[in-house]
Amino acid sequence: MDAASPPRAAAQVFVSDPTAPDVGVEDRHHLVRVLRLAPGELVIAADGSGSLTLCRFTGSDPLLEPTGPVTRHARPSPVITIGFAPVKGDRPEWVVQKLTELGVDRIVPLVTERSVVVWSGSRADRALGRLRKVAREAAAQSRRSWLPEVAEPLALSEFARQVSAAGDQVALADRDGQPPSLERPVVAIGPEGGWSEAERDLGLARVALGDAVLRAETAAVAAGTLLAGLRSSLVGGLAGHSP
Predict the structure, then answer these.
(1) How does residue 118 score in pLDDT terms, banded at 50, 70 and 90?
(2) Residue 151 reports pLDDT greater than 70
(3) Contact yes or no for 112/191 (Cβ under 8 A)
(4) What backbone torsions phi and psi does residue 98 show, to the nearest 5 degrees?
(5) pLDDT of 133 above 70
(6) pLDDT attached to residue 236
(7) Buried b (16+ CB within 10 A) or exposed e, 72-109
């Protein structure tokens, strides 16, 4: 959830330079053929790194014409990261879509000891390509000025190491954990079979998402929802834990 509300517009696209928006083939098709915008309608052109401008749809080349200056939105703080162990089917795409809509900043597919789905080689490239496309489309639909990062798959131990090196700590989603808090904005969601003993023995903090046993994809979205709600002050601190 971006700190500043974007201007009202019929659509949003991501471009490399909002001052000279060059619309890609897929976005062009979406604006012209799917939305069937009329000349004069407004479209947001954003660079995915916080800069955007309001443009007028022309109906011809150049398709978008800036109508004002570029505005800059600061990245929300703290950065929210959700790592999750992908499951079968198209559910990983659904998870990425919903986490993007919620405003999660970094999404990391995890390789765990009990993972059923393991991406590697060309399969990983294809899967990541799909997830990044889904994130881009969801970010445009939800009017995000910052594109989320969809990272390469990581083992839980490497994920924890990288996060620690950046000055933070991974918290494992666990029913016996503490309530969510912005003091722990990095949450890892395990596979359907749960964390292994070795993963539990990594010494990571634990965060609870409720009393019920959640499906992996539900847990990922629940973690993103709670942290985003805390960051935007839509909800207060949980169970005595200050945001």
Answers:
(1) confident
(2) yes
(3) yes
(4) -70, -40
(5) yes
(6) 74
(7) ebeebebbbbbbbbbbeeebbbebbbbbbbbbbbbbbb
Place of tokens 């950046």: 166
Report residue 183 as tokens. 């003091």
What is the rounded CA–CA span in Å between residue 109 and residue 130? 13
pLDDT of residue 120: 75
Residue 106, both tokens: 């970094």
Report whether pLDDT(115) > 80. Answer: yes
Burial class (CB within 10 angstroms; exposed 0-12, middle 13-18, buried 19+) of 132: middle
What is the number of other CB atoms lying within 10 angstroms of the CB of residue 209? 22
Specify the amino acid at residue 73.
H
Q: What letter represents residue 68's amino acid? A: G
- What does the pLDDT read at residue 5? 57
Distance CA 223, CA 35 (A): 33
